[in-house]
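Researcher: I'm preparing a figure for a lab meeting and need a structural model of a single chain. I don't have an experimental structure, so a prediction will have to do for now. The sequence is pasted below. Please return the structure as tokens so I can convert it later.
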Amino acid sequence: MGLRRAPVQRRSRERVQRILDAASELIVEDGVIALGTRTIAERAEVPVASLYQYFADKDEILLALVERDTAEMDAAVAEAVGALETISVRSIVTATMRAFVTIYHHRPAFVVIWWRGRTNPSVYDFCRAHNKRVAGDLLAFAEDAGLVRPGTDPQIVELAVEVGDRVFQLAFERDLRGDQRIIVEGIELVTGYLERHATSAGITAIPRPGTDDPA
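Model: Understood. Here is the structure written out token by token.
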């Protein structure tokens, strides 16, 4: 975890959020390299000593930001996939990647930290582990729904997630809104690869479990 100690009281939680929000703003304005604990404290309007109660250094703040933002991504993916009336490899890939893009627009500091730096070992390790967990969750969902062949190698889905990660890096490296053409083509790329391992249901689509068959 990025936090040195977890805030318990509401006032403390609000102070931590101000610190993270201030760091996020500064990262988007000036980049990760220029970020410093003193400037973060000034922007958040908190004493530097208060900042150090929760974070040992700026690297811990970066990790805490990434943890916060990826938690929002997970929630957005769950909501997007859960809203699908019919599911297929294509619809799941599209919903997942579009959900990520929504959070990247809401949390542009993540774009700067992850795709324009990757100099923080803790952030690197956390994001690699997060990608692997996303792949595992999506594979489990697809297997349970009969969208992929039984015994599909988990590494196939892990590779697809990593390819998607690289697509986003290319799409957002110069524009915080992302290059829409690259995103669209990336969705096609990941979908085409995973459909090679799909069942016929995974390609043609089926009603999502728990929904009424529209037919």
